[in-house]
Amino acid sequence: MRKLPLYLVLCAGAALSAYPFLWMVGTAFKTLPEATTPGLTLFPQQWQWRNIADTFRAAPFGRYFFNSFFVAGSVSAAVMLTSLMAGYAFARLEFRGRTAIFALVLATMMVPFEVTLIPNFVLIGKLGWYNTYWALIVPWCASAFSIFLMRQAFLGLPGDFFDAAKVDGCGHLRFLFRIAAPLVKPMLATVGLFAFLGSYNAVLWPLVVTTDEAMRVVQVGLTAFSGDAGVRLNLLMCASAIVILPTVALYFAAQRHVVEESLSAGIKG
């Protein structure tokens, strides 16, 4: 009973957090007049299942999903590779200026995205990458935060591992991919998850570097339900519920690795 107030507060917080998602799902299956009627009603009087078909007819969401998965998957793979190699180099390799270079990499985290938007756009135009996958993928193939995470993961590995591998004739690359990478797999999965979600949820950059309908991603495709006549709120919520499903599924799939990394971060010795 002494913990009852704590449970009540936690339940209230959970309800407040869940309400917007329940409202989104409920509105997705309402008629347009019912969806635009002010009120706190969660679920429709009659479920409009045809809203799903109407959503996919309103815009080529099949193409949008392909673009989003292709771009987000490519960015995730590139970030995992660059972060793995750069993090290992900053953690285990001895070279002149290592500390200064790492500090410079961390300093890039302080630069807002809006500052680099125009220079990156100009560079994309000069390279002839406008309206191409290169523009959506290449600028995000490396992440300073991911490099920092991987460096900390490699610093947590005992140095005896590399010494033993070196005695057996193992070089840096072989040690990295055959021994070190499997040992930091939870952190690598976390880096990949962050990279995928960041790329999948991006709106401003894809909106700036693409105008062709075939190159649009799902987040930009949500704007198809807003026009001069107003917002088709029920279809917009239906599309939003469909768009959010892959991220929820990916989080649950990678949750075990994220939890493992969070727990191991507090274990010393």
Notes on the protein architecture:
By secondary structure, this protein is an all-alpha fold. The chain contains 14 helices and 2 strands; from the N terminus they run H-H-H-H-H-H-H-H-H-H-H-H-H-E-E-H. Strands 1-2 form a two-stranded antiparallel ribbon. A hairpin with a 2-residue loop joins strand 1 and strand 2. The longest helix has 32 residues, at 61-92. The radius of gyration is 23 Å and the shape is globular. The two termini are 38 Å apart.
Q: Layout of SSEs?
A:
Elements: H1 4-28, H2 32-35, H3 50-58, H4 61-92, H5 98-107, H6 113-127, H7 133-137, H8 144-155, H9 159-167, H10 172-183, H11 185-200, H12 204-209, H13 218-221, E1 226-227, E2 230-231, H14 233-264
